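Sanity check. The docking grid for zinc ion depends on where the pocket ends up, so I'm generating a full predicted complex first rather than guessing from homology. Inputs follow.
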Amino acid sequence: MKTITLGPTNVYLLNVNNGYLLIDTSYPDKYELFVQKLNEININISEIKYLLLTHHHNDHAGFAAQLVKNSGAKIIVHKAAKPYLENGRMDPDLKGVNLRLKFMLGLASMLSQFTYPPVELRDTDYILEDDTFDLLKETGLNGSILYTPGHSADSISLLLADGSAFVGDAAMNTPPVLGAKHRPIFIQDMTSVYKSWKKLISMGAKEIFPAHGKPFSAGELKNY
Ligand SMILES: [Zn+2]
Ligand SMILES: [Zn+2]
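Predicted complex below; grid placement will be based on this.
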């Protein structure tokens, strides 16, 4: 597994049968930096066979369209992401969001400006409805993809058999100044966030690899 940090977002490359599975992209303007960092570790963009989008936010799907165009990677995503990806927009429904922060950032109005190049989903992509995706059969990776909503309605996590959990923004590891360190900064539904954490732990998550911040022990989530 390789971690590549692109601005505030960590993306992860996992070895699969015929190349790599990439978990998330970053903002649209980080594509060149990504290619440069791939070159440094001797990976060609064409070796990326799958792009798993943990959710549709612009710091995750920002350069997905460009990556898919240049690599031919198949997208793995939850079906709830589809309308936002295809319009290159963010879901403005953040009613459960931390109100103080929302006020501070003028978030609702900001979100509508957070656009990114639209991502067209094709028949060959994997659009998930639940937890039944056969990761091993499709990619050779021993693990599963779990539906982990709360931060957003389309959040999914990849859990490997060894307990490594790639969760996108379902959990974070941010500086305390931004609030409770493992809680997502933006939330659609806090109850779902906690349910998703329980699900990850009960399914065997041991180490959490968040999109924002360093990896941490899944046990830390039990303190909430
Ligand atoms: Zn997000
Ligand atoms: Zn994010």
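Relevant for the grid: The chain has a mean pLDDT of 91.
Also worth noting: Residues 148 and 199 are 8 Å apart (CA to CA).
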